[in-house]
Design goal:
5 helices; rod-shaped; mainly alpha
């Protein structure tokens, strides 16, 4: 019976070699990825917030804020001409040309001018109908 219950010898300690180079490269890649991710998370919202208005948006805002009734007539005509040309497109270009031909002589008069109701309505109509 003793032969069946024989105690087995314990194996000697074996040296296991671990290649740490793979783990170091993996750690470096993870660190670079995390740093890049943090940079992008901080940088993207700043670019979104700093979005500057385009020339079209600035001209459209100026046309909307143009006070046709109370401002000086020459100033109104010059501002309208400058901003409307920047906002024009193929659909409203012909209407703008008609309006500009009608107001062109008024801009170059030496004396102070008063805009009549018809011209004021044309300017307001162009701003409201064509640009919205």
């Amino acid at each position: 019976m003793e032969s069946k219950e024989q105690i087995l010898d314990i194996m000697p300690y074996a040296t296991i070699e671990i290649n740490y180079l793979n783990y170091i490269w993996l750690l470096i890649c993870i660190i670079v990825f995390v740093i890049t991710l943090i940079y992008l998370i901080k940088k993207i919202p700043q670019k979104i917030e700093k979005k500057e208005d385009t020339i079209f948006e600035i001209a459209l805002k100026n046309l909307k804020n143009l006070d046709i009734e109370k401002s000086d007539a020459k100033t109104v005509l010059y501002e309208f001409t400058k901003n409307a040309k920047q906002c024009t497109n193929e659909y409203n270009e012909k209407k703008l040309e008609i309006i500009l031909k009608q107001i062109e002589p008024l801009k170059y008069q030496n004396k102070n001018i008063v805009l009549d109701r018809k011209i004021k309505e044309m300017l307001k109509g162009y701003i409201q109908d064509e640009l919205y």
